[in-house]
Amino acid sequence: MSRRAGRRRAQKAVKVVISGASSGIGEALARYYDEPGNVLGFIARRNVAGNFRSQVAAFSVDVTDVPALEAAANDFLARFGAPDLVIANAGIGVGTHGDEIADVEKLRRILEVNVTGMAATLAAFAPAMRKAGGGTLVGVASVAGFRGLPGSGAYCASKSAAITWLESMRAELHGSGVSVVCICPGYIDTPMTQSNRYPMPFLLSPDEFARRMARAVRAKRRLAVIPWQMALASVLLRLVPGWLYDRLAARAPRKPRDVPI
């Protein structure tokens, strides 16, 4: 057994809730936090596959169904108490064009999942964690939330809103003992990105991303862009003046619009 694995096993048991746990980043996070003694709460529309060493409570819930989500949270709280960590990871994305009226329905659905669903997931557990005086709430946003990208307006808008919501929530919970962490992934090799028809620099596997994300969460970083190369790129992008950004971005490849969400 490696020393890193030994250190992980030496840590106290934790209760972790993960939304969107059935695939991609969420599935990798479920593997990462799966340790004997831990309690894992899974919130996902589909079944979460795997033989887990942790105690598992799985809830077949769409995060946009707020009453069902609240009922699942209350079930978890009644059985296990306040979680140590809640990760609002569920998200969707597809290409959209601002001049296509048909894409407004995609915009509505993306905002509903990526913003409202994230907010509802965290809000369902936050009062119990505040009462317990500790824990960490994590929202998974994206580097796409820092500037608008052509062909991805709905996705960019949703992730920008997620970043701002989490910043507001962090200030609201300041002094409560509950931390709020915003994670902004770059390109991760998941079903969502596998439909992209263009190069994806600094692409990470879901498991490598989960390891890096867990480090950021342990450090209670307010905002973490992963990998660091994309953090640098995002800073540079925000420094580009609007007139130049428009010209450069107009030439960027577009996310496919024909992917089901």
Report on this model:
The chain has helices at 3-10, 24-32, 66-80, 104-132, 153-172, 206-218, 228-239, 242-250, and strands at 15-19, 39-44, 55-60, 85-88, 135-140, 178-185, 223-226. It has 8 helices and 7 strands; from the N terminus they run H-E-H-E-E-H-E-H-E-H-E-H-E-H-H. Strands 3-2-1-4-5-6-7 form a 7-stranded parallel sheet, sandwiched between helices. It has a single domain, classed as NAD(P)-binding Rossmann-like Domain (Rossmann fold). Helix 6 links the parallel strand 6 (178-185) and strand 7 (223-226). With 261 residues, the protein is an alpha/beta fold. The chain is globular and about 55 Å long.
List keywords for this structure.
seven-stranded parallel β-sheet; 7 strands; 15% strand; 261 residues; Rossmann fold; alpha/beta; disordered N terminus
